[in-house]
Design goal:
Helix content of chain A: 25-40%
Strand order of the largest sheet of chain B: 3-2-4
Strand content of chain A: 15-25%
Structural class of chain A: alpha+beta
Oligomer: heterodimer
Structural class of chain B: alpha/beta
Number of helices of chain A: 12
Largest sheet of chain A: 4 strands, mixed
Helix content of chain B: 10-25%
Chain lengths: 351, 100
């Protein structure tokens, strides 16, 4: 296929790779870091790992009337430094972002500055080296770094979410460079996220979630499931937006306590959904809710979540401390839904 | 030293362009007097109050007639067919808001 692959993208000839890197910086086509020159040969190598044609439609952003093609995703994946074998995950994640339920335009334009968190589950995670252990949100793993980076480059270059222009984030956060993790499936007795969300255990899947930066729940002293869950509620109810979903990243040390006390993932999700509350009076005192505080407000408890289905739980992280995390939603709350899609080597829809 | 010409590197443009939708601009109203205004409330905080105030000002200053307001369920979604149907053919001009 690669020998005859035709691309619609404009071709640019430059003296050498360093000139390409500088040129792409000058055009505003990077995230501020150097890119890998996207030659036609490199792009073709990515497309041949799937059954994609260059003009296959991966997604469409109606608010911007922009069509995302496999060719453009592959170009940006090469630029990000991906290996060709990451491409099925990249394509699937891009499809998930352009799913109507995710409402991509909202989160990528928003002043609230969310980034798409990508969670990779199933056999593909180990096959391509997606890290779910030590430093899971940090640097050092090519798959995590480049898969997440590809999505950012696609949002900037294809979906036109240039910072300060159509991406109006006040602060942004480091996840806008890359935000991709796996789950410790083989080390956890809990059901993995993708299975909870309807996939088979041996199926590879990607979940995307419009997210703020992770908040640590650093608790090395709690020694009961309830205490750890209560410390998560402390963070949820003080530092996250009410409404929408959230992702709870449970570290291995905390997982052992939950398992010892007989808690399932469902137990944790239900506990957090039912007990993450705060009085209306408190919310008014902080200005989260307008209006003067009335005496009855002190007992008027406002819930963060209407259902355990709004609380997603992933087991990840190293074994060095009791550091779990809460990942809050984009401020738009239920304006964006987490979306899970199975990784396949061909696109579901072709244009 | 070789006399062969140096070869550069050819790379691909990573960007996409929106495909412009063909359309025509609506005729400008010759007057607001007696005209019916439609408001699209995008449900941002206080958008309802701002648009209601604007409606009152237009009526007081320019004599606009009664208005129709639709409220989107969330700011970042395009108005859907049902919402458009509430305004189509029933108003003379539409004001969406608010930007924050």
């Amino acid at each position: 296929m690669s020998a005859t692959m035709q691309f619609a993208s404009e071709r640019i000839e430059l003296p050498d790779a360093l000139a390409v890197i500088e040129y792409y910086f000058e055009q505003g086509w990077t995230d501020g870091l150097p890119i890998v020159p996207p030659t036609a040969e490199a792009v073709a190598a990515f497309l041949t790992t799937t059954s994609s044609r260059p003009d296959d439609i991966v997604g469409y952003v109606p608010n911007r009337n922009i069509t995302v093609t496999a060719e453009k995703v592959a170009i940006n994946a090469v630029m990000a430094g991906c290996r060709p074998e990451y491409f099925p995950v990249v394509l699937t994640a891009t499809q998930a972002l352009t799913d109507d339920r995710f409402n991509l335009h909202g989160s990528m334009a928003s002043t609230a500055g969310a980034a798409p968190l990508v969670i990779v589950n199933g056999p593909v995670a180990a096959q391509i080296g997606v890290n779910a252990g030590d430093n899971v949100f940090g640097p050092g793993w090519r798959a995590n770094a480049t898969i997440g980076r590809t999505l950012r480059l696609v949002l900037m270059n294809v979906c036109r979410a240039q910072p300060g222009v159509m991406d109006k984030a006040t602060l942004g956060h480091p996840g806008k460079y890359t935000y991709c993790i796996g789950e410790l499936e083989s080390e956890s007795a809990w059901e993995p996220l993708h299975v909870e969300r309807g996939a088979a255990r041996d199926q590879s899947a990607v979940t995307v979630f419009a997210a703020e930066a992770p908040h640590y729940v650093r608790n090395d002293s709690a020694n009961s499931a309830e205490a750890i869950a209560n410390s998560m509620i402390d963070v949820l109810s003080r530092a996250t937006n009410r409404g929408g979903c959230c992702v709870i990243v449970v570290c291995p040390e905390h997982l052992q306590v939950f398992l010892r006390d007989g808690w399932s993932k469902r137990d944790l999700r239900t506990y957090l959904a039912e007990r993450t509350v705060r009085s209306l009076a408190d919310l008014k005192r902080c200005g989260w809710v307008p209006g003067a505080v009335r005496p009855a407000d002190e007992q008027n408890m406002q819930r963060w979540y209407g259902s355990p289905d709004q609380v997603l739980v992933v087991v990840a992280g190293g074994k060095t401390s009791g550091s779990s995390a809460v990942v809050p939603p984009w401020a738009g709350g239920m304006s964006s839904q987490p979306v899970t899609k199975g990784v396949s080597d061909c696109l579901d829809s072709r244009g | 030293m070789s006399d062969a010409p140096s070869r550069g590197i050819v790379v691909l443009d990573p960007t996409a362009r929106p495909v412009p939708k063909l359309g025509s601009r609506a005729e400008r109203l010759d007057t607001l007097e007696g005209k019916r205004i439609g408001f699209i409330d995008n449900s941002k905080r206080n958008s309802d109050q701002v648009l209601r105030r604007l409606d009152t000002m237009l009526h007081q200053r320019y004599g606009t007639a009664d208005s129709i307001t639709i409220r989107k369920s969330m700011p970042s979604r395009i108005v859907d067919a049902n919402e458009i149907e509430q305004l189509l053919g029933k108003v003379d001009a539409v004001i969406p808001g608010v930007g924050d």
